[in-house]
UniProtKB/TrEMBL annotation:
This is EAL domain-containing protein. It comes from the Bacteria. Residues 31-285 form the EAL domain.
Length: 288
């Protein structure tokens, strides 16, 4: 919070305050710079999707991919999503970008299936701002119709906080999407605030355990308790669980032996460009 930061900076003395103000000024300039450049990113073809495979917890059978956005700016190079997605959200540009992501992901998966890939689902991240739009369900329906991708193969990843902004409204939207046949996942589960009472009411299919609970699962007993508790809770609500950020065989084994259904992480694959993802899925599709 800027005000609190100012207050502490002031309390720490005049020099610190000036240092802080300069720092915040620089941050603001950077934001404006990103905002200005982002306005042209779609029309200048600077955005691309990469795809990270997801597996059944045997670590062998692919169940899907998560589409993740990448922005290659001609002079600034790769700008990571954590740096521009929040700005796209605040400015509303996420609506156009999100639309592009949805259409591109559906089209590309349909293309892979038409090229002989055994069908798996493609998961697309949806931000709170997109979900709040009255025409969001039409956008999803449009991407499915335009691409010809069966609705069952599209999964939408939504965070706890974005559904908790207005739970009553969110339930209606998620129910509509569910009736269309689209599957729904709660992303980054455990990092936000969510009410279990509401969770029960959401027509969701997957809970994604956040990477922060997986990272130290071998050594941190609290993280382990949260991860295992989430699996038990999800199963008792009839949901599948997918763990993100799985990097080691030990993490995989702990999750698998405690009933985690699916896994995603660098242990299996980093996010891949479209062509590489297709080849990877194709090569792993028949694995026994
Ligand atoms: P997320 O949806 O939780 O995506 C998972 C992030 O974890 C991705 O980072 C992925 O590359 C990274 N990851 C996967 N496996 C591992 C692992 O084993 N170790 C580590 N250290 N990291 C791993 P990425 O691609 O930088 O995306 C960051 C966030 O940006 C995403 O988090 C999501 O919230 C947002 N994002 C990405 N693409 C989109 C998009 O198309 N639309 C929206 N609204 N948000 C997006
Ligand atoms: Mg995600
Ligand atoms: Mg996530
Ligand atoms: Mg996460």
């Amino acid at each position: 919070n800027a005000d609190t930061a100012m207050y502490h900076a002031k309390a720490a003395g005049r020099n610190n305050y000036q240092f802080f103000a300069a720092d915040m000024n620089q941050q603001a300039t950077e934001r404006l710079d990103i905002e200005r450049k982002l306005r042209h990113a779609i029309s200048r073809n600077e955005l691309a999707l990469v795809y990270q495979p997801q597996f059944a917890s045997d670590g062998k059978h692919p169940t899907g991919v998560e589409a993740l956005i990448r922005w290659h700016h001609p002079s600034d190079g790769m700008i990571p999503p954590d740096r521009f997605i929040p700005i796209a959200e605040e400015t509303g540009m996420i609506v156009e970008i999100g639309d592009w992501v949805m259409h591109t992901a559906c089209r590309e998966m349909k293309h892979w299936i038409d090229s002989g890939l055994k069908p798996v689902r493609v998961a697309v991240n949806v931000s709170a701002r997109q979900l709040r739009r009255r025409d969001f369900c039409e956008t999803v329906a449009g991407a499915l119709a335009e691409s010809g991708l069966p609705a069952e193969l599209l999964e939408l990843e939504i965070t706890e906080s974005s559904v908790m902004e207005n739970p009553q409204e969110a339930i209606l939207i998620l129910e509509r999407l569910g009736r269309m046949g689209v599957s729904l996942a709660i992303d980054d589960f455990g990092t936000g605030y969510s009410s279990l009472a509401y969770l029960k009411l959401f027509p969701i299919d997957h809970l994604k355990i956040d990477r922060s609970f997986v990272r130290d699962i071998e050594h941190d007993l609290n993280d382990r308790a949260i991860a295992f508790g989430t699996i038990a809770l999800a199963h008792s609500l009839g949901l599948n669980v997918i763990a993100e950020g799985v990097e080691t065989p030990d993490q995989l084994e702990l999750l698998r032996s405690n009933g985690c259904d699916e896994v995603q992480g660098y242990l299996f694959s980093k996010p891949l460009t479209g062509g590489a993802a297709f080849a990877f899925l194709h090569a792993n599709a028949g694995a026994e």
